[in-house]
Amino acid sequence: MNNPVLHISNLSKHFAISRKGMNMQRAEVLSSLHLIVERGQLNTILGSNGAGKTTLFNIISGFEECRRGEIMFYPAGRKPVNLLRLDASRRARAGIGRLLQGTSVFGNLNVEENILMAQKPVYAFGNLFDKTKHIAIEKKKIISKAADFLANTGMDYAQSRNRKAASLSAASQRLLAFAMLYVSEAELLLLDEPCSGIHHDQLPEIAEALRMLLSEQKTVLLIEHNLDFVSMVPGTCHYLSEGKIRESGTTEDIIFMYKSEQGC
Amino acid sequence: MQELLIQILINGLVSGSAIALVALGFSLVYHTTRIFHITFAALYASGGYLFWYLSVGQQFDLASSLFIATLFPALLSLFLWLIIYKPLTNSGAEHNELMVASVGIMMIIIYLISLIMGDDPKLPSSALGKTLPARYLQLIVNIIVITVFLLITSTTRFGLRLRAFRDNPRLLGRLGINNFYLTGILFLLSGGIAGLSAGLSTNDLGISPFTGVHVFINAFIAVVAGGSGRISGAVAGGLFLGILQSAVVFLAGSEWILSLSFAVLIILMLVKPDGLTGLARREA
Amino acid sequence: MEYFVHTAIILNIYAILIVSAQLVIGHAKLISLGQGAIFGAGAYFMALSMIRLQIPFVPAIMIAIAGNALIGLLIAWPSARLKGDYFVLTTLGFQFIIFQLTYNLSSVTGGSDGLGGIPSPRWPGLSDESQPYFILSLSVFITALVFMLYYRLLRSDFGRNIRAMSDNELLYKASGRSVIKIKSQLISFSAATTALGSGLYAVYMNYLDPHAFNLDKSILILTGVMLGSLTRLRGALAGALIITLLPEVLRFAGLPAAQGASLRQIIFGAVLVGLMFFISWRRKKQNQTNNNE
Ligand SMILES: Nc1ncnc2c1ncn2[C@@H]1O[C@H](COP(=O)(O)OP(=O)(O)O)[C@@H](O)[C@H]1O
Ligand SMILES: [Mg+2]
Questions:
Q1: Does the interface predicted TM-score (ipTM) exceed 0.95?
Q2: C163–A106 CB contact, under 8 Å
């Protein structure tokens, strides 16, 4: 224990205009939030709708501006960084992966192209003229790794590689998004509701995909409303309410607490 | 020296209030429907030409010329919403498609005008009074209209609905307030403001087919500079831009106005990325 | 025959302009109203280096390419950083700024009199009668080059990144890539290849008039892209063919020259509006059939 990968302290966030309803006051979403995420573990965040879970992820990813607080990220074998000082794309390159709520694949790209987007970006005009050998080898490696991953979760890569991602079923899209995170170099993955829009029968496949991410030594921070799913993948659990992490503990305990607070 | 400064300030207030009024008219539609309503520029031109035709060509008096030049673009704006934007939105047109359609309508109207009226600049008639009174008239009407609008949006029920509509159009529908009439009124008002502003400015400076597009660009920059999302921001941005422009006209000449506006936009983005009133959202 | 050669050269130039604009408007989904000005900027770079600096064709076109690439970065700088419709606004403003520059800086650009005396490249030993054919061959060669370049580009990592970015900006950032960077690169690249069309235009016409690069030209290019195809290279060629031939058809139809220009713009405007109705209607129908399946 005591090998954190992420250390959030004193994080506060408010929106200038509350977009819900017509009242125009300041809406405090996070207030002095503290959270420590241990390396290589699964950390689940529970909280009611509108508690600010997605907002927390957006601040970690750099999609939402935040000037108050500190988010220290400790990448393995590299210097720690305060994420708030970096822009979104630099944070991703530093090792923060993200599964967006809803669609998290490029719908107009085919499956193979989507997987290649998980590759570390090559700058300048890419390999426009010169198909550099090591990049080509790297691509092959990534694709075969992703194909293995998809096969393990019950999806045939060879059959779907040329299909547009938008034409896949919701579950296949989700698995593809997992595959992209699996082959990426990201160390800390932020998964925002991976089970939304997924049929109940397919939850074991998503759970298997999640376990495979963990087996790659990746740290996972998970937001999920589906308590059946959360019980399938035990780990550390946090309860977010009133802008703070109110309680941390085992999945079982926090689910119990969450259920009693929600009154069901 | 002092006279020069006063002159710059007055000219700045006139053109600033004109930009602010146009920005207000544009933002009525833009901030509620999110359509990049560049047809607004053509509505402006139609108002300006109609005013010129009535006051100079047909010798109408100032008030009735202005009235008709306000009414026509207002009705045209409503009409275009009904026959173009609304059906397009209903069949699920994307943002870019609405924008391109708007560009298309703008071209049609502007070139219809230049087909009918010719594309030479139309100068104001001196019979309607010297330029100085025309300028004061413009300033006074601009200020009155802007103030009335600011009061309406900040105090009345209509204004409340307008702000709610801007923040969350779907929610308003669910509350049982009719979007159809509200949007219609917005297009009507927006077109009317375009026409009124064009008439006043034509009375002072005259008009040519692309004047509306120039004015439109300035107004959009004012909206950005003011920090988008609030009408008062657009007004502040317009006044700021107008005063700056009139100073530059004295120093360098009027042909550089547009380049200056863009320089302002870029410098503002460097020093005050959230706009003058600090509400714009920036890309992370 | 002369008329055919002239039309063919213009067709090639439009093809270059449209395929370059397609990258921005079609692939990156950034509506641009400044393609005419970018075209003009390249032509003035070309003409000024040839006339004022006495530079021959090939290095001059290099200068035009480099100059336009810089202009692309200049346009991208503010608009790539702000959300929303700032790109279309910036390009529209840029359209007028370039016009004002070429029109008002008359000591450099010739102003409203235009800029004449641009030399044409010559093939040693070729007669005067063959000169148009030489320019035509040169145009076909350069156009083919540009199309090959775009063919490669769109299949490279760069092309994939552009499509990914226009598909989902947030996810694009989450994959560690910079939206600002790729927008700047693609806008700059498109402006640079536009300069090849500008260079051809300058040496073929031997004379530049600021009015040739006004908003009408930008709308014409936009219409060409929309009519042809937003993403297919073949479509760019088709778009170029239509906008080259439509004015000729109108002329044969016997429109008086004075009103011809205005009428043409009205027709292009109507085409744009009609096209948008058609596109959204077609998509709605497609969605309905998909839902019924
Ligand atoms: N861009 C925004 N502007 C204003 N309010 C927002 C914005 N994004 C989120 N909110 C508000 O912040 C609160 C938290 O939202 P979110 O983080 O999405 O909740 P959840 O925990 O369900 O993911 C909600 O009340 C929401 O309305
Ligand atoms: Mg959420």
A1: no
A2: yes
